[in-house]
Amino acid sequence: MPELPEVSAIAAYLDERTAGLPIRRVDVASLAVLKTADPPYTALTGRTVRAVDRIGKYLVIRTVAGPDSTDDGEIDLVIHLSRAGWVRWSGALSPTPPRPGGRSPIALRVHCGLPGEGFDVTEAGTQKRLAAWIVRETSDVERIATLGPDALAVSREDFGAILAGTTSRLKTVLTDQRTLSGVGNAYSDEILHTARLSPFASAKTLSDEHVDALYATMRAVLIEATSRLTDREVATMKSEKRTGLRVHARTGLPCPVCGDTVREVSYADRSFQYCPTCQTGGKILADRRMSRLLK
């Protein structure tokens, strides 16, 4: 799933290529992707891209009235890439709209700039969770209205208050978007490994020194990952992300810090990784999937 570093890099990539350009047309290959109907997606035609940025893990294409627009207010196209969504830029888009219900991974196509220029929003796999909203205010997207503070904008004081106010495990706190926005499964693994903290540690029990270390580590990991991805071609960002991961998705491989075997805890639809030596004092955490099978 694209997280804060990838969404930031994608936003910067699109902003560089589309800011100031007119939207000539938007094609919707899957109506199920659209979660709003007013304004309609056709209202984007003729408008100009003002900027592309992000809120949490949401990509926001901000548009203003163009010379052919009758609506002079701002209209935003908000996209949540979910687990398998991505963006693909092209200078040779087909003028023929993608066929609805076909096998193509294309969910949305935005034609902007010169004929043939624009980008596709794609989703791989059979579980279609990608979502798009067309709104006048980003707060009109309920999920955005309920987001916690951004992981790179939250202060140390507020971060400490968040941890002190919950008995949840650190893994849960870092990935709950209503508590803290931007961090997902992959980078929470990386943050906790770098901070040498157990995913199952209770947030409320952390000492001030551990809170300081976790806060600094969270910022360092996210900033470094964002910097590594920025200025990359969007097509290479996924592979670049993988090369920078130290424990996530590396089950069975040696920890790059201590050499111990990276372990995994599995749930019904996801898993996370950790190093016993670096994070849990050598203790092997119970694998939820195996625990169920053994009952």
From TrEMBL:
Its EC number is 3.2.2.23, 4.2.99.18. The keyword Zinc-finger applies. GO terms for molecular function: 8-oxo-7,8-dihydroguanine DNA N-glycosylase activity; class I DNA-(apurinic or apyrimidinic site) endonuclease activity; damaged DNA binding; zinc ion binding. Residues 246-280 form the FPG-type domain. It catalyses: Hydrolysis of DNA containing ring-opened 7-methylguanine residues, releasing 2,6-diamino-4-hydroxy-5-(N-methyl)formamidopyrimidine; 2'-deoxyribonucleotide-(2'-deoxyribose 5'-phosphate)-2'-deoxyribonucleotide-DNA = a 3'-end 2'-deoxyribonucleotide-(2,3-dehydro-2,3-deoxyribose 5'-phosphate)-DNA + a 5'-end 5'-phospho-2'-deoxyribonucleoside-DNA + H(+). Its cofactor is Zn(2+). It comes from the Bacteria. InterPro entries: DNA_glyclase_Znf_dom_DNA_BS, FPG_cat, FPG_N, H2TH_FPG, Ribosomal_uS13-like_H2TH, Znf_DNA_glyclase/AP_lyase, Znf_FPG/IleRS. SUPFAM superfamilies: Glucocorticoid receptor-like (DNA-binding domain), N-terminal domain of MutM-like DNA repair proteins, S13-like H2TH domain. The keyword Hydrolase applies. Residues 2-102 form the Formamidopyrimidine-DNA glycosylase catalytic domain. GO terms for biological process: base-excision repair. Belongs to the FPG family. This is Formamidopyrimidine-DNA glycosylase. It comes from Gordonia humi. The lineage of its organism: Bacteria, Bacillati, Actinomycetota, Actinomycetes, Mycobacteriales.
